[in-house]
Predict the structure.
Amino acid sequence: MKYLNKIVECVPNFSEGRDKAKMEQIIDCFRGVDEVNLLDYSNDVNHNRMVITAVGSPEAMQKAVVNAIGVAVREIDLNQHRGEHPRMGSADVVPFIPIRNMTMEETVLLAKKVAAEVSKAYDLPIYLYEKAASAPHRENLADVRKGQFEGLAEKMQDPHWKPDFGPSEPHPTAGATILGARNFLIAWNVNLNTDNVDIAKTIARKIRFSNGGFPCVKALGINLADKGQVQVSMNLTDFTQTSMQQVFDCIREEAASRGVSIDCSEVIGMLPLEALANTTIHYLQLKDFNLNRILENRLLE
């Protein structure tokens, strides 16, 4: 997409990971759209959630996201939704990330424009978070989503949790959407060879920053019923402060101390090459290695 002057990324999370027809309708909002490139999409039946990664011009991305949220509002009824992942809305979380020739201030402005449009078009409450947050207590996603869909009506009665846009009561089927601007993060899950979810929850508490763990790490312990396993589900909000290998080593040690091994890990969406390269450098104990010695990096110069 070198012809575009400004490029923004959007990684919307939708509360549907099981109904293929509904997911395809949402994905179609990003397919074949001028000045939008659909990079990735994935769903998880246990989480009952889908994550899309797309990049494009701010104007084209605004249109695509507004359309996708509209499909989610129409098709996803949270009264019937069951899944392991916390959720407040059918279109649950919609972050924008500046990629090229976009300042964070411009990205915040884009997020607010989308919030204003979708709240009016779909009669949908919108909360702004991260860099777009209207108050410090709204910056952290977990705080905004606390209580989830089921507790949303009561939460909205508190003046501290009045939506930034839209009505002051939840949408009857779509709840509320959390929308904002942030820096790049890595969404990453580690699956453990046990069905004891308490182990995953204990490890999540150990590693997440809010409980005294690693900086820039958010984590939950989740049950994967169809696999007979549990999962440590994470967001690394700044891998330069806490690396993937630091977290992985800690999870492996904590699991082993409880007689459990790691089955696999998975990245949701996209991640920077630097994050993987640094992990490889660590585990292979490469001496005096840097990113300039990766062939593809040199070809792009």
